[in-house]
From TrEMBL:
It is found in: Cytoplasm. Pfam families: S-AdoMet_synt_C (PF02773), S-AdoMet_synt_M (PF02772), S-AdoMet_synt_N (PF00438). Residues 241-379 form the S-adenosylmethionine synthetase C-terminal domain. This is S-adenosylmethionine synthase. Keywords: ATP-binding, Cytoplasm, Magnesium, Metal-binding, Nucleotide-binding, One-carbon metabolism, Potassium, Transferase. ATP binds at H17, D172, A173, K174, R238, F239, D247, R253, K254, A270, K274. K(+) binds at E45. Pathway: Amino-acid biosynthesis; S-adenosyl-L-methionine biosynthesis; S-adenosyl-L-methionine from L-methionine: step 1/1.
């Protein structure tokens, strides 16, 4: 949980990375279901390979009209996501208008549903599993510094591409940031790796100079760079072919990018394409919310929260809070205080964080936590109600 001394790295990927395209398509489908019917049960997976996209999953809606409406719009949703990411043609990425799009929608298993929508009216957990949440005082976002700066780099890359300042940038990009830690504090950036897709006409040295000047210099302050600081920009040189043309994409394959960059444990469950009855998603958001409460309220500089559930059972089977510099007795008091204040059943989490709304598509790139461009309910602190926090509708990156 706490990085004491040495080097630690985290990576991020852009919205045009093939795995992120898969996440974004799955969450766009989820949002469409929630727009029609907030109680929809959604488990949506996406595969992209070259000029083929397969969207498959299991769904349950109260109205068959909802299922049919989303099913009919699914091909358009896929094309819109690909186009929004910046893809236009097949030679170097994927063509949103001509690629093959297969839609495979099924009904949710009745065996699973009987444990979720129970006869007693209680919402049971959609699956068994364990989820972690983390917060620390490395940054104002209460996130580990390496993942925060890794996200900033690829977001900056996307901003310059979209604005036309560097029009030869492509949609596919990856970043990596290495920090040196001393006594548990991030003190300097040792290395930055940034690989970006580009047009065929840009020379490698010109690309590296522009990326260093316009992307990295805007994100990594000079006073934060170690004396041995290094930049590795497109270390293999040419990166013209990207997206699904260069690599297969799958939903849920960037779960460390989505969370804490490896600075905290991960239970293994992905977020994208899952409605909030799936505790893989909702309980991970709640765990982050609780960890952030602990740090924001000054109870500890770092907090790790674990929640675990059994399928069909509402109450968690375990709830752990690990803190730094706090006695075991005080840790127990923190657990008791949080249990009294917050309902940790799936229904309680959904109500507390107001999760049955189409807010997920913008989270599917650049991380689900520590976002300063979105007002997300699980990032609220100090026990303020959602009304006191104001609108939490995020703007799309």
């Amino acid at each position: 949980m706490s990085i004491r001394n040495g080097l630690f790295s985290s990576e991020s990927v852009s919205e045009g990375h093939p795995d992120k395209l898969a996440d974004r398509i799955s969450d766009a489908v989820l949002d469409e279901f929630l727009r029609h019917e907030p109680s929809s049960r959604v488990a949506c997976e996406t595969l992209l390979a070259d000029q083929c996209v397969v969207v498959a999953g299991e769904f349950k809606t109260r109205s068959q009209d909802t299922f049919r409406a989303v099913r009919e719009r699914a091909v358009t949703i896929v094309s819109d996501v690909l186009r929004d990411a910046g893809y236009r043609e097949s030679a170097t990425g994927i063509d949103p208008d001509r690629c093959e799009i297969q839609i495979r929608f099924n009904g949710q298993s009745t065996d699973i549903n009987q444990g979720v929508d129970r006869q007693d009216g209680v919402i049971g957990a959609g699956d068994q599993g364990l989820m972690f949440g983390y917060a620390c005082d490395d940054t104002p976002e209460l996130m580990p510094a390496p993942i925060v700066f890794a996200h900033r780099l690829v977001r900056r890359q996307a901003e310059l591409r979209r604005s036309g300042i560097l029009p030869w940038l492509g949609p596919d990009a990856k970043s990596q940031v290495t920090f040196r830690y001393e006594e548990g504090r991030p003190v300097a950036v040792e290395a930055v790796v940034l690989s970006t897709q580009h047009d065929v006409g840009i020379e490698t040295e010109a690309l590296r100079a522009a990326v260093s000047r316009d992307i990295i210099d805007a994100v990594i302050p000079a006073n934060l760079r170690a004396s041995s600081y290094r930049e590795l920009i497109n270390p293999t040189g040419r990166f013209v072919i990207g997206g699904p043309k260069g690599d297969t994409g799958l939903t849920g394959r960037k779960i460390i990018v989505d969370t804490y960059g490896g600075a905290a444990p991960h239970g293994g469950g992905a977020f994208s394409g899952k409605d909030p009855s799936k505790v893989d998603r909702s309980a991970a958001y709640m765990a982050r919310f609780l960890a952030k409460q602990v740090v924001a309220r000054g109870w500890s500089k770092r907090a790790l929260v674990q929640l675990a559930y059994a399928i069909g059972v509402a109450e968690p089977v375990s709830f752990l809070v690990q803190t730094e510099g706090v006695t075991s007795a005080r840790s127990s008091e923190i657990v008791d205080a949080l249990r009294r204040e917050f309902d940790l059943t799936p229904a309680g989490i959904i109500q507390c964080l107001d999760l049955q709304r189409p807010i997920y598509y913008p989270t599917a790139a650049y991380g689900h936590f520590g976002r300063d461009d979105l007002r997300l309910p699980w990032e609220a602190v100090d026990g303020l109600s959602l009304g006191e926090q104001g609108s939490i509708e995020g703007r799309q990156s």
